[in-house]
C-alpha cells in the first residue's frame, strides 16, 4: 500500500503486521517477514496509527499492489 499526503506533515507513529516507511509525504506499507506468504483462503490484517495537523489535506493518492484505489 502506498499513499501520498500533502503537506508532508502526516507522520506514521505505529503499525502492526506491516513494514512501514515514510519519505516526506509518501508512505509505504508492505508485508512483515512473518506474513509474507498467505495460504489459499487465508487472510492478513494490518493497521497503523498516524498524527497530522488539522490543516493537512486528505491523502491525494492510494495504491494497493500497484493498482490505484478510491480514496474515502
Descriptive account of the structure:
This protein is mainly beta and 72 residues long. The protein contains no helices and seven strands. It has strands at 2-4, 11-16, 19-23, 26-30, 47-51, 61-64, 67-68. It has a five-stranded antiparallel beta sheet, with no helix packed on it. Strands 2-5 form a two-stranded antiparallel sheet. A hairpin with a 2-residue loop joins strand 3 (19-23) and strand 4. The protein is globular. The two termini are 15 Å apart.
List the helices and strands and how they pair.
Layout: E1 2-4, E2 11-16, E3 19-23, E4 26-30, E5 47-51, E6 61-64, E7 67-68
Antiparallel strand pairs: 1-4, 1-6, 2-5, 3-4, 6-7
Can you describe this structure in just a few lines?
The protein is an all-beta fold. It is built from no helices and 7 strands.
Average pLDDT, all residues: 78
Question: Count of DSSP helices?
Answer: 0
Give start-end ranges of low-pLDDT stretches.
none
Strand order of the largest sheet: 3-4-1-6-7
Overall 3D form: globular
Number of strands: 7
Give short descriptive properties of this protein.
about 70 residues; 5-stranded antiparallel β-sheet; globular
Amino acid at each position: 500500500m502506498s499513499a501520498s499526503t500533502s503537506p508532508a506533515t502526516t507522520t506514521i507513529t505505529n503499525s502492526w503486521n506491516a513494514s512501514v516507511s515514510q519519505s516526506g509525504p509518501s508512505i509505504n506499507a508492505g508485508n512483515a517477514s512473518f506474513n509474507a506468504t498467505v495460504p489459499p483462503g487465508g487472510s492478513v490484517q494490518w493497521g497503523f496509527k498516524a498524527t497530522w495537523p488539522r490543516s493537512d489535506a486528505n491523502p491525494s493518492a492510494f495504491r494497493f499492489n500497484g493498482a490505484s484505489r478510491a480514496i474515502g
